[in-house]
Each structure stands twice: as C-alpha cells, then as structure tokens.
Amino acid sequence: MRVLELFCGIGGCAAALPESAEVAAAIDINRGALAVYSSNFDHPVEVRTIESMETPELRKYQADLWWMSPPCQPFTRRGRYRDDRDPRTRAILALLDPIKRIKPPYIIVENVAGFSGSRTHDLLRKTLDRAGYEVEEHYLNPAEMNIPNYRERLFLVAGREKLNPLKVKRRKAKSLASYLDPDPDARLMVEPEEIEKYHRAIDIVDVNDPTDITACFTSAYGRSLVRSGSYLKVGDNELRRFSPTEILRFYHFPKSYVIPRGLPLGSSWRLLGDSLSVPSVQAVFSQIPGL
Length: 291
Fold this sequence. Notes:
By secondary structure, the chain is α/β, with parallel strands linked by helices.
C-alpha cells in the first residue's frame, strides 16, 4: 500500500501507518513541520504548495491512498468560518480536478467537524460521487476511546472499491497523571496576572479528578489562554501549561517520536495544534482493504 501524505504536518498519518505501508512522499508547505517530520521518519519529503502540483506530478507517485489533512482554520470560529472565501482552501480545491483525472483507489480527508456542511465539503463530495467513489464519513473523538483528551474530527473515507467496516478500538483507561512529565519545565507555569485576568474562561483540569478530560489543543496554545486547550492545576491558584511531550502522549504518538531539541515551545505548540490523534487515524485506516 503506497500512501501519499498531502498536508502531512508533523506526521500524524505516518505515525499511525502499519510497517507494511510505504509512504510515497510527505508534502507540506511548512518547513518547520517537515523538519520535525524528518527527525522521526525516513520517508521522502517535499516542501511544496499543494495547489502548485499538477495532475502529472501527482500521478507519478502511483499512490494507492491519498491522505489529505488540509488547513482547518477556514471552518473554525477563530477562522470566522470563511470556507471557500479563505485563501487556505485553495489547496484542497485545487485537488478536485486531479482526483477526477487520476482516481486514486482510496482517499481519506481529515478536518474539524465544521468542515461538514461547508461549500468546500460539498464540492469535494460532488467530485467523489461523480468519480464513482463509495464514501463514508465519521466523527471520531479520542475521548470516546478512553483517552483523556477531547479532539473530535471529521474523517471522510472514499474508496473506488468496497470499504471495510470501521473498527474503533477502545483503549484501557489511564489516569491523567500517567500522561504527565515527571519533571515539568518551569517555563510552563502560567503567570498569576494572566490567571486573574482570564480565570473565568480558562479550561482547568485537576490530576486528582479521575473524570477530567483535557480540551482540544489548538495552534493558539501558549499564546491564548482561552479556547486553545486545557491548563493543569498544580496548587492553590497555580496553573501550568501542558508540555509538547505531554500533548504527544495525549495524541498517542509512538514513544520513540521526538520533538527536536532547540525547537521553541511556541513553535512546538503551534505544530501540535494542527496535528492528529493517532488512534483516530488508525480507526479510519481499518476501512482500507490491505492496510
């Protein structure tokens, strides 16, 4: 199974793939994301805008599966739901014609729940329907798999042949404490004046509460205290941010996966906010015969 990773980010798709799969190429415009990707995988990477790739170039990869994880901001509150009026949708819209011409055997598109019902989503569905694909869509959330992190995403799975039934694996429940670093960095502490200013809007989790689930971490984490993720209570009126390695654990990336030394905290949080929950990706892969 040859996989073409479009909008590959730091490699959430690659981290979920079985060893039997071969990555034809991992493509992204973000050099920082590709640097992290290359620190963990030996797959060929290309710094490209997706919209600059023409049909003959995409055809040369001879990929069985196109993985597509385009920017989610056009379909979010922070992005003001600008949909196809947002320049960041140009890339996925540019892929519609190559899909019609190449008709790769399988396609998976990942995005936020707000992608469903958008004009961009409608154009994609019409393209797939006219090209003869069987299409299924699923909302998957690691919080429903016994993982203490809320990260609901829409997965569109399309196949030229019949898809397998979806298999979602519920993991053995683990405590919030098991995801934490043993010696957290002091730079993670939230400034007292920031807590006082935003205390009514901050999402706070307590390691001593077995029911607490971390909110969805976004690319704004570390810059905004509101609607960007959760903060950990570490004492009376004391909070800290979650480290990049802790967020990787919430996403269930392999233990061998590393954030390169020297990458600033802010950059790490931005890249992780755009990444994937590995168990969710593994669930949709169960629908692809032979993967």
